[in-house]
Design a protein that fits this description.
Layout (H helix, E strand, L loop, with lengths): L1 H63 L8 H4 L4 H18 L5 H23 L3 H28 L8
Helix pairs in contact: 1-3, 1-5, 3-4, 4-5
């Protein structure tokens, strides 16, 4: 009887080991699928942030355009230049906040843009005559506009392929 029980126990152990191997493989496949989906979500979040940056650039450019290259003394009269400068400051703060999610190259471009715009923002906020308002406004406009190529490169780098089903 002991021999019979040891044979049955051995067979049960073999089936248990096979079952454990099968379940381990299923778990490994599930874990790799979960990791892949997690990475896709991270990539899509980065892309969404890039889109947000791009739309914010368009918005800020439209605000700054009021005192930008095509502005006239009639159009600028009565504009709140300090308010426009605050909009640009808020835009730069958003860029600085987002830069940690992306490459060092992007971070360097953001820091460079911030440094380039510091004096223009201060000058624009304090400008009282049309020529100063236009000069600082144009400078801000062109510097932000030149930053769009950085965001375009970032967008191209963050493009995510569609989810596999």
């Amino acid at each position: 009887m002991e021999t019979f029980l040891s044979i049955v126990g051995s067979i049960a152990s073999i089936f248990g080991a096979i079952w454990a191997i099968v379940e381990a493989r299923k778990a490994a496949r599930s874990a790799s699928a979960a990791e892949r989906i997690h990475q896709e979500l991270v990539d899509r979040r980065k892309l969404a942030e890039v889109v947000q940056i791009h739309s914010e650039i368009k918005r800020v450019l439209s605000v700054v355009a009021r005192v930008g290259p095509t502005s006239t003394s009639q159009l600028v009269k009565g504009l709140d230049c300090a308010g426009i400068a605050r909009e640009v400051e808020a835009f730069l703060a958003m860029l600085l906040e987002q830069r940690g999610h992306f490459s060092k190259k992007y971070s360097d471009h953001v820091a460079e843009l911030r440094d380039d715009l510091k004096l223009d923002i201060e000058g624009h906020a304090e400008a009282r005559v049309f020529n100063d308002k236009k000069r600082f406004g144009k400078s801000i406009y062109y510097k932000i506009e030149s930053f769009t190529h950085v965001v375009k490169q970032l967008s191209d780098a963050e493009q995510v392929p569609p989810l596999e089903t």
